[in-house]
Amino acid sequence: MGRGEGVPVDRCFIFDRLPGYSSAHGATIAERGNGELICAWFAGADHKGGNGVILFARRPAGAAQWQDVRAVAGMNDPRAYGNAALCAHTGPDGEERIELFFTRVERPEGNFEGRARGHDSFSYIVQSRDGGWTWSQEQSLRDQRSFLVKNKPLVRPNGELAIGAYSDLERRSWLGTRPAGGGTWRYGQAIAVPQGCSGAIQPALAAWPDGEMQMYLRTGDRRIWRSCSADGGRTWSEAEPTDLPNPDTGIDAQVLSDGRLLLAHNPTESARSPLALRVSEDRGRNWGPPIVLAAGDGEFSYPAIIEGGDGRVHLAYSHRRTRIEHVTLDPAEL
User: Fold this and answer.
1) Computed over its alpha carbons, how large is the radius of gyration of the chain?
2) Containing domain of residue 58, as a range?
3) Cα separation of 195 and 137, whole Å?
4) In this structure, are strands 121-128 and 96-105 parallel, antiparallel, or unpaired?
5) Which one, of 276, 264, 272, 327, lies nearest residue 300 by Cα?
6) Is 128 within 8 Å of 134 (Cβ atoms)?
7) Using CA atoms, how far apart are residues 185 and 172, in angstroms rounded to an integer?
8) What beta strand segments (E) does 2-145 contain?
9) How many domains, the chain?
């Protein structure tokens, strides 16, 4: 047990330097209906080349450790994979399905680092109906170069799936939606940004039962930006900067069952350490001080956050780009 600035947390490593996979980044976490936690991320000999895979792990309900770390079936041939996003939900047929979104560079050679990697990537989806042991054939999320995902999709009350998507090349973001049970993905207009903004990407979604939605966005302007929707995501306001620092890196958000909003980010303008959690009691208009979850040399970055069925909060994030760490806390302590 550790402490995040006065908040008790449980922590463990999901991925601890398996042979051949010295790099780990871009984690996503979800909970199945039976209480089992699942996590996925991209890993390889290093984070720059085309020699990676998407790894998947599970932590059964009540288990103390993560288990069965393995490449997602069908991804054993090393490629230049990128960020993953997981969702577990029940379809109209009453059967649970796990959907895994991921990105992959579709270029046979060249520099896979940074923007060059994002510019030549495409996004795909695979589905599992047996708890993640086997997976369907991949399907394209959208046949568009540099159309990417980073954060988890949301399941709406009507079963529709919503996910934030973005383009590294165009520096724009969209909301994508798909009907319950499958079908065609639809995308609204790109989120408007004012002239002079460096672009807003990697959207993290927040949604409340009354239909209000918010999209928190990574920018290169040293601040997290936000766009709001009062009609369930059909229309969005022009993005505006918040007071929250952002060193141009990944963030994630989660609306708790009590209505509070959590945001995980690096609360600096230039470094990916520390990693912190913030709490808003009023839907993001005001934020509490950063609750530091990880700090030190190197980076602690790209958080993914969910609320479990038992009310506890789970975060998975990159620990110095070599391991994936899992933190659990009780939101009543926040």
Assistant:
1) 18
2) 2-333
3) 41
4) antiparallel
5) 272
6) yes
7) 18
8) 2-4, 7-16, 23-31, 37-44, 52-59, 67-71, 81-90, 96-105, 121-128, 139-140
9) 1
Q: Which carries the bigger pLDDT value, residue 187 or residue 106?
A: 187
Q: State the amino acid at position 74 in one-letter form.
A: G
Measure the CA–CA gap between 25 and 3, rounded to whole angstroms.
Answer: 23
Across the strands, what pairs with 6? none
Within 8 A by CB and 6+ apart from 285, the residues are none
Which stretch of 77-86, 92-101, 230-239, 258-267 has the lowest confidence by average pLDDT? 77-86
DSSP state letters, 220-259: SSSEEEEEEESSTTSS-PPPEEEEEE--S---EEEE-TTS
Q: Quick one: residue 87, left, alpha or beta (phi over 0 = left, psi -120 to 50 = alpha)?
A: beta
Instruction: Quote the CA–CA distance of 106 and 117 in Å, as a whole number.
Output: 9
* Residue 307: CATH number of its domain: 2.120.10.10
pLDDT tens-digit readout, 119-133: 889 999 999 999 999
CA distance 214 to 172: 16
For 248-297, what is each residue's pLDDT tens digit? 999 999 999 999 999 999 999 999 999 999 999 999 999 999 999 999 99
Decide: residue 334, CB within 10 A, 0-12 exposed, 13-18 middle, 19+ buried: middle
Q: For residue 141, what pLDDT is reported?
A: 95
**Can you say whether the dihedral through the CA atoms of 316, 328, 162, 250 is positive or negative?**
negative
Residue of 285, 272, 160, 277 lying closest to 214 (CA atoms): 285
Q: Give the predicted TM-score (pTM) of the model.
A: 0.95
Residue with tokens 């960020």: 83
Give CA–CA dist 123/142, Å, rounded: 7
